[in-house]
Write a structure and sequence with these properties.
By secondary structure, the chain is of the alpha/beta class. The protein has four domains: about 100 residues, no CATH class; about 100 residues, Beta Barrel (OB fold (Dihydrolipoamide Acetyltransferase, E2P)); about 190 residues, P-loop containing nucleotide triphosphate hydrolases (Rossmann fold, 3-Layer(aba) Sandwich), CATH 3.40.50.300; about 160 residues, Rossmann fold (3-Layer(aba) Sandwich). It has 24 helices and 22 strands. A seven-stranded parallel sheet has the order 12-13-11-14-15-10-16, sandwiched between helices. Strands 17-22-21-18-20-19 form a six-stranded parallel sheet, with helices on both faces. Strands 3-4-5-7-6 form a five-stranded mixed beta barrel.
Length: about 700
């Protein structure tokens, strides 16, 4: 796949090679992301205009586009500057006027000679009780009616590019579309009733009715599928490359896992056992594991990860677990150490704070293999950190790490298995788009014993009642979070709002009880404020949205979110997940400032009515769309020209299955279908993505 196939050359020529497009127009079309004829082929009409010939305008509900054959009765030239030229016409049963502003009368009289018939098509309106058509879109001789499409496609436009120009350019580009080999599985294509690629392109640009411009039409579905298939093919190639890399078989024996599982105060969920089995099957394989473990807040990902780490140790190696912050790393240490003791393995932590003799001792023990499992921050992949035999790298809260950091960790031992964890539920379609190169395990059950969080909506006008209730809870020895509102997406204003609330709560509840954490604090100060809250030295933590993901304070049973309507659904769900981690009944108060918008009400009511993170994620996707849900930071998310991840999730799943099957059967893409798939990758410029894709 070193060079673009010759058959595609015309589609990647300069736009100026198309009739009617000069340098100026080509520059304007760049605003529509149209740079070569291929881009026009994939710029599909978004609607259409019914131009079918009708006998008369009589009975038409104006305003409406109509096409009729008329007899020209006479001309009424403009009587003064700025007045229109009017043309009296009649159809089979009634008369109306054609109206032209700033037009030359002699030109109009040549176009519409009195006593002759013409086909006119345009928007019929009523003005002063008289039907009229201002500047008809089309004026044709009756014998040229075939030049007027019965259903005229409407394309997206930009300033300086007219509908006629766009349609003409698109038609010319479609004329360059060659017959290509078929890359879709024949059975799938037949079952779905999809046309061949070139037929689909032609059909998408020549719709015959409203149905043909819908995403559900066979031609459009096929073109959307092609985009998703090309993307999934790229991910499948990346996955294949990853799997071909030499891995190591790490077979679990249960020698260390057994005592840990028996010591647990609860039975693991079926989802946890399923995920443990999937991970351990991967680790036992000679191929390198590249797996995503996705679970809602409190679904028990840490146990799955720890079982995997023990499997690595059972196989004679070491494991590493990387967390995004020191406080999270220390919480992992605190939570896992009792389990490690049950298993009889040495568990240690390494952070940026380790220095001097202590650091040297840890590094020496790690290199000698005396430390079995190492927990830490990004310090795990700093220079000088050497494992004796790293078998498994676990990355917690993947979205907090860059791809380069993940890869760096993998380089510590190129054959080490990689397990990535995220507590952010991602809708299935987006998960496939973003992590399609990875195998995915989903934890969709919560362990027993988790206290359900009661969620209530409270108007900000009841602030006094909320503070009083908070006081009673603190007096009873409970802890609480108070999250301050987002203020115009400004960290400075967010900070001001947080500091104001901090002062208010200190005066209302007592200075010693209240802590403050925000994004502008130096890291050491922020860690100290979080640590004081974790230790129970402060009872109420006032924060902006920087409350660390995953921080576990079992005694915290109240979450107050101020101006909750300014937050996204996923963010609200994450924040709520900070409480309900202990045995005490927990509450999340969503304080809002009325009147609520329809979207704000829907978000808050969704959160009140369910605690299912995956359902919340799907609702968030439906409300905001893929781009907003993932945010600009998620640069790995593809952008599709026609495929719609919100509405075509099923197509994405089909594309993944089809792509993986093809790569498994034809890893080098040398069969006729494989060669066709190569052409598709070139056509959709996925050749670049193959180099860029994350392979873990």
């Amino acid at each position: 796949m070193s060079t673009r196939p010759e058959v595609l050359f015309p589609l990647f020529a300069r736009l100026e090679t198309l009739p009617g497009i000069g340098e100026k127009t080509a520059k304007l079309m760049a605003n529509l992301h149209v740079h070569v004829p291929k881009d026009l082929v994939f710029t599909l009409p978004f609607s259409g205009i019914d131009r079918r010939l009708r006998p008369t305008v009589e009975g038409v509900m104006a305003p409406q586009v109509v096409t009729v054959k008329v007899l020209v009765q006479g001309h009424i030239p403009a009587r003064s500057k700025g007045r229109p030229h009017r043309v009296e016409v009649s159809d089979s049963t009634s008369g109306f006027q054609l109206v032209f502003f700033h037009a030359r009368s002699d030109w109009l009289e040549r176009q519409l000679p009195v006593g002759e018939e013409r086909i006119v098509s345009g928007k019929l309106e009523i003005f002063d009780g008289v039907p009229q058509m201002v500047h008809p879109d089309h004026i044709l001789l009756p014998e040229n009616i075939a030049d007027l499409p019965e259903f005229e496609p409407v394309y997206p436009l930009t300033q300086g590019v007219s509908q006629k120009l766009m349609a003409r350019a698109a038609t010319a580009a479609v004329g360059l579309a060659p017959e290509l080999g078929e890359w879709i599985d024949p059975d799938l294509k037949s079952r779905e009733g999809w046309p061949a690629w070139s037929e689909a392109v032609k059909a998408a640009h020549t719709p015959h009715g409203t149905f043909d411009v819908l995403p559900t039409s066979p031609a459009r579905q096929r073109l959307a599928y092609d985009e998703l298939f090309a993307h999934q093919l790229t991910l499948a190639l990346a996955r294949g490359q990853s799997r071909r890399r030499k891995g190591r078989s790490s077979k679990a024996t249960g020698r260390l896992q057994g005592p840990v599982l028996r010591a647990l105060p609860y039975e693991p969920t079926r989802a946890q056992m399923r995920a443990i089995s999937e991970v351990q099957d991967d680790m036992a394989s000679v191929h390198r594991m590249n797996r995503l473990l996705q679970g809602d807040v409190g679904a028990g990902k840490t146990l799955v990860a720890f079982m995997a780490l023990l499997a690595a140790v059972e196989a004679g190696g070491q494991g590493a677990m990387m967390a995004p912050t020191e406080i999270l790393a220390r919480q992992h240490l605190q939570g896992l150490r009792p389990l490690a003791e049950k298993a009889g393995v040495v568990l240690e932590i390494l952070t940026g704070r380790d220095s001097g003799a202590e650091r040297r001792a840890k590094l020496s023990a790690l290199k000698a293999g005396d430390i079995s499992i190492l927990v830490g921050t990004h310090a795990l992949f700093q220079k000088g950190v050497e494992f004796q035999d790293l078998r498994l790298a676990v990355v917690d809260e993947q979205h907090r790490f860059g791809v380069s950091q993940r890869l760096e960790l993998g380089r510590k031992s190129p054959s080490a298995d990689v397990l990535v964890m995220t507590a952010t539920p991602i809708p299935r379609s987006l998960s496939l788009a973003q992590y399609g190169d990875m195998d995915v395990s989903v934890l969709d059950e919560k362990p027993p014993g988790r206290t359900p969080v009661q969620t209530a909506l409270v108007s900000s006008g009841r602030m006094g009642e909320v503070v009083e209730r908070l006081r009673n809870s603190l007096d009873d020895g409970r802890q609480a979070y108070w999250v301050c509102p987002l203020v115009e997406e400004s960290e400075i204003l967010d900070l001001a709002a947080a500091e104001e609330r901090f002062k208010y709560l200190r005066s209302a509840l007592g200075e010693a009880r209240i802590g403050l954490v925000h994004g502008q604090m130096p890291p050491a100060q922020k860690d100290a404020a979080m640590a004081a809250f974790v230790a129970g030295q402060t009872q109420c933590l006032v924060a902006t949205t920087v409350i660390e993901v995953g921080v576990d304070v079992p005694n915290a049973s109240i979450m107050v979110i101020e101006r909750a309507e300014t937050f996204g659904l996923a963010q609200l769900h994450q924040l709520r997940g900070r409480v309900g981690r202990g045995s005490a009944a927990s509450t999340c108060l969503l304080m809002y400032q009325g009147p609520l918008s329809e979207g704000g009400r829907r978000r808050l009511e969704t959160l009140r009515d369910t605690d299912d993170g995956f359902r919340i994620a799907e609702e968030d996707l439906a409300m905001r769309g893929a781009g907003d849900v993932l945010g600009t930071a998620q640069s790995g998310m593809p952008r599709f020209r026609n495929a719609d991840l919100e509405r075509q999730a099923g197509l994405m799943a089909m594309a993944q299955k089809d792509a993986r099957r093809l790569i498994d059967a034809d890893p080098t893409l040398t069969t006729p279908r494989g060669e066709a798939a190569r052409t598709l990758l070139w056509l959709l410029e996925q050749d670049k993505a193959i180099q860029m894709i994350s392979v873990g």
